[in-house]
Please model this.
Amino acid sequence: MRILVINPNTTASMTEKIGKAAESVASTGTEIVAVNPADGPPSIEGYFDEVFAIPGIIAEMGKEPAADAYVIACFDDTGLDAARCATDAPVIGIGEAAFHLASLVAGKFSVVTTLARSVPAIEHNLAKYGLASRCAKVRSSEVAVLELERPGSNARHRISEEIARAISEDKAEAIVLGCAGMADLAHSLSEEHGVPVLDGVVCAVTLAEGMFKVGLKTSKVGGYAAPRGKRFAGIFAPLSPTEVEAVQAG
Model:
């Protein structure tokens, strides 16, 4: 199968890291294509950035209409509902994927994310997915997303300290890393702290493969129905459903 993994921000080094994480768990015969939009924010830190990333996600999906599944590699699950409208293939958000898998390996988990401004969006998603009761706490490490890409940064140390507090204070039995830029840290942090530490990228790829194997597709009845034909104005004209039809899985 072919999985398109979309990093919704424009930072290519992060896309490369995400692609490697995805490939590390992909089955033999699964092709991982990791991409990011050319236009948009270099990192997604809160509601404002999210808005400007969504058109790029839909555009990247339109370039790969034959993909068997799509992964949205932003922990806020940026544009996830819109992306599911654009295709009948499975579309997995790394946040939702990690929450579900964490709930299968622990009674309670905590999320350790980047900045405090990202906490409300994650809490909103947990409630939306019906998993708020399984999450002990959403914690911020006060690490900016782009610090994760900077050589010599103490980002890992600060994240590790927050994990230790989550285990001690929240009684968390597992930790979900709340940023795709942390994808390369999960294994070593799990060994360091002695609890499952989940990265959403590998969780999402694993779920995408399973859904493909059993033949599940995105429902086109109700909220995820294909967009109605209409012409968008201005810079969004190329994304008009009348000109660029909803992506259909090959």
Q: What stands out?
A: Helices lie at 12-25, 47-63, 80-85, 94-105, 119-128, 155-170, 186-193, 200-213. The CA atoms of residues 172 and 207 lie 23 Å apart. The chain has a mean pLDDT of 94. The radius of gyration is 17 Å.
